[in-house]
Structures
1.
Amino acid sequence: MNTLTPLLEPLRTPPGPSPRRDRHVLARLNYLQPTAERPYSYACEPPPGTPWENCEYEPRQMEIRDARLADKPPCIDSEGYALWDAPTSVTDFLDTEAVRARYYPEAAELALAATGATRAYVFDHLVRRREPDRAALTFGRQRANDVAAANGRIHNDYTEASGRKRLALVLDDPEAVARVRRFAIVNVWRSIKGPVLDTPLAVCDARTLTVSDLVVSDVRYPRRTGEIYVALHSPLHRWSYFSQMDRHEALVFKQYDSRVSGVARFTPHTAFDLPDIPAGAPLRESIELRCLVVYGDAQ
């Protein structure tokens, strides 16, 4: 019996009284500057003499709407993202065993509810923490023996190629892969501390993207290199965030969809600094989890 399902609800109405009721904020988001090179960024200490990244990012002042106040709640298959009321039984997200044993099944169930898919495979998670000195946002570098920092570069976790590659890695069975007609990769993002009052996550409406906005980029880890998209600026991009996301809420957003038309396929996202952060606001701590979902044969 699915005991968690009754707790999962898409949020369709604005929350209760809030000190921040503006429909939007203006904040700087870091776009890739046009470059002739294939961009790369290190997620860990690079080799001596090698820069952390080989490209420049330009901050652009953008309007970021509070999606809680949208006239119509966003949908994962149109805008590319949706907010869910999804309480968790995990109390310590730094306890990797507890996260894998309890949070992974919770997140898989949420991913199925959010996407309408038939099977879900959680394969990765990462805890991030804003730096105490509120340093300028970077690609979210991980310091030695610590969790990763907030990622302040606009990016999408999968490209056309790495999305397809991930299916084979997760299923690890060529016959099972051959039977899949449609699959998607979603992120599940939540605060693990309390209401997010600084450095929230902004997501780009997938309907405002064009193919030419996305640039293939490498992310270099100690033992592998991943492939993601970073984004060039477009005045057409429409950005949103959910104000004061709390621990019982989860933002589910699309990172890849094998269906090539009619649905959101990529949702670029980034941490950003809220203007006028309240004095003494706690530093953001969050967990992001990646889940591959497979749709039934009829899809």
Note: Helices lie at 96-115, 160-171, 174-179.
2.
Amino acid sequence: MDKTKEIAKKEETKVEKTRQLYEAVPAVDIYENEDEILLHADMPGVVKENISVDIDNGTLAISGVRKLATEGAAAYEEFSDLEYVRSFSVPQNIDVEKVEAELKNGVLRLHLPKSEAAKPRQIEIKTA
């Protein structure tokens, strides 16, 4: 695939905003183990195509647009289309190239693997 097609394809995946959306901060749980940092962001009603995850200059930015399908004119509305937006500082020990994301049941799960140099290790003691 040449670079022109690849760049054009990336532009198509951007979330289109047709009107001003209400913004909400998604609830997030963060877990850490020896191998990675796990981030779970609650984004109900958002589909994969409307989610954006970017890491740039040490900042992780997530956003997702929840679009509601409606029929007819609303007589009364308490919720409508909504954009979830949140950002985090990313530690330097994260291997940005290996970050993975998955969406299941309205929860965005981000796997932020630690670089090999940042993982804890046992130091072998040598005897003379």
Note: The chain is about 10% helix and 40% strand.
